[in-house]
Amino acid sequence: MDLEVLAVNYWKETRKDLKKVLSEPWKTLLLFHNSKEVKEIVDFIKKLSGAKKILYISLTKTDNAIRPYFDDMETSLFIVDCVSGGVFEKKNTRTSFYENPPSTIDEMSRLNDKYITELYPDYIILDSLSQFIDFSTTTPKNTQNLYDFLNTLKNSRNSCKFILLYMDTSSKSVSFVPSYDVDIILKMEVISDKVYWKG
Amino acid sequence: MAKIMIVDDNPDISETLKTIMELEKHETQTASNGEEFLNKVEKAKPDLVLLDVMMPGLKTKEILVKLKEKGLGNLKIILVTVVRFSDEERKILLNEYNIKDYVTKPFDLPDIVNRVRKHLG
Q1: Is residue A58 within 8 Å of residue A77, measured between CB atoms?
Q2: Which segments in chain A show pLDDT lower than 50?
Q3: How far apart are CA B18 and CA B25, in angstroms?
Q4: Please, are residues A81 and A98 in contact by the beta-carbon 8 Å criterion?
Q5: Which ipTM value was assigned to this complex?
Q6: CB neighbour class for A157 (10 Å; exposed up to 12, middle 13-18, buried from 19)
Q7: CA within 20 to 30 Å of B118's CA: A49, A77, B47, B65, which one?
Q8: For position A153, what pLDDT does the model report?
Q9: SS3 state of residue A164
Q10: What is the pLDDT of residues B61-115, one digit of tens each?
Q11: Contact state of A86 with B61 under an 8 Å Cβ cutoff
Q12: What is the model's pTM?
C-alpha cells in the first residue's frame, strides 16, 4: 500500500527565546516531551512566571516522586495523585489529594473542574494527555472529546493557565497536533547518553 | 523454558512482551486486567508475571492481596509501568510487596529481557 502524507509539522527551536514565548498571552500550552523522569518537566515549569499556586494533576507520577523537585520553588504546590492510591494506602493532606485515575477525558475534565473550584490555582499541570490519546495514530479514539476538552480549557473564564503534558516516546511520528485548539505547542527533547569523557 | 504471564490492558504492549518472551522460548499467557489474571493464574502456574500497574478494575494492591489469599504470595512479579515512583516507594514495592523488579515504560527491550533472565535464574 502506498503511503500518504497525513501531516506536516513544523518545529521551531525555541531555547533562546523560550522566555519570550512563555511571556506572551496564552491560556493553554501543550508540551510534547520524551522525558522519562520528573526533573526535566519541573525545570520547564520553573520557567513560568507568576506561578504562586500550582495544581499538578498526575496520572503518571506519584506525589512523593514529584514533590521534592519543587522544594526550591517559592510556590504553593497542590498535587492530585491519581496513581499512588492503586498501590499504597494514602490519606489526603492539605496539599496532596489521592484520586482514582480518570479513564476518559470526560472524567479528567470533571477532576480538573473539581480542583479548580476548590483551589483557584495560577497554573494547572495535566500529566499526561498521553494516557488518553495517541497523536501518532490517525484515527485516535476520543478525538472529538479531546477537541471539546481543549477548547473548554482554552475558553474558560477562570484566570488559570493550563499546561498539558504529552509524553511522546513512540517510535512513530506525530501524525496530527491540535493546532487550533491550544494556544502554544512546544516540544521538549531530552537527549540522554553515556558521557564518554567522564570515563 | 519458563511460563510467563503478561498482564496489561494495552494490547500493543501485551503483544510486544508476548513476542519477546516467545523469542526467548518462554511459554506465555496474557490477561488484560486484574480479574482476568486472578482467574487464570492458578491454572497457568506461571514462573514469572509481568504486571502493569494502572489497569481498569482491580487496583494493584488488591491484586497482590488476592494473590496472597490464593497462597500465591511468593509468585515472582515484575512491575512494568508508566508510573514513576519515588526511591522510597520503590523500596517498599521491592521489600514489603515482594515485587522482584520494576521496569518503566517505555521499556528498553534488551533491558526487560535481561531482567526476566535474571529473575528466572
Answers
A1: no
A2: none
A3: 11
A4: yes
A5: 0.88
A6: exposed
A7: B65
A8: 95
A9: strand
A10: 999 999 999 999 999 999 999 999 999 999 999 988 889 999 998 888 999 999 9
A11: yes
A12: 0.91
Which chain B residue has its CA at the smallest distance from A67's CA? B86
Q: Which residues pair with B81 in a beta bridge?
A: B104
Predicted local confidence at residue A140, as pLDDT: 53
Average pLDDT over residues B34-43: 96
For B64-118, the three-class secondary structure string (H helix, E strand, C coil) is HHHHHHCCCCCCCEEEEECCECCHHHHHHHHHCCCCCEEEECCCCHHHHHHHHHH
pLDDT digits (tens, 9 = 90+) for A100-117: 999 889 999 999 999 999
Chain A residues within 8 Å of chain B (Cβ atoms) = 36-38, 59-62, 64-65, 68, 83-89, 101, 103, 131, 167, 169-170
Of B100, B104, B84, the closest CA to residue A67 belongs to B84
Cα(B85)–Cα(A66) distance, integer angstroms = 9
pLDDT of residue A124: 97
Q: Which residues of A touch B104 (CB under 8 A)?
A: 36
Distance (Å) from the C-alpha of residue A169 to the closest C-alpha of chain B? 7
Cell of A7: 501531516
Domains of chain B: 3-115 (3.40.50.2300)
Q: Is B82 on the interface with A (CB under 8 A)?
A: yes
**Domain extents for chain A?**
29-190
Q: What's domain A29-190's architecture?
A: 3-Layer(aba) Sandwich (3.40)
Give the distance from CA A26 to its chain's centroid: 15
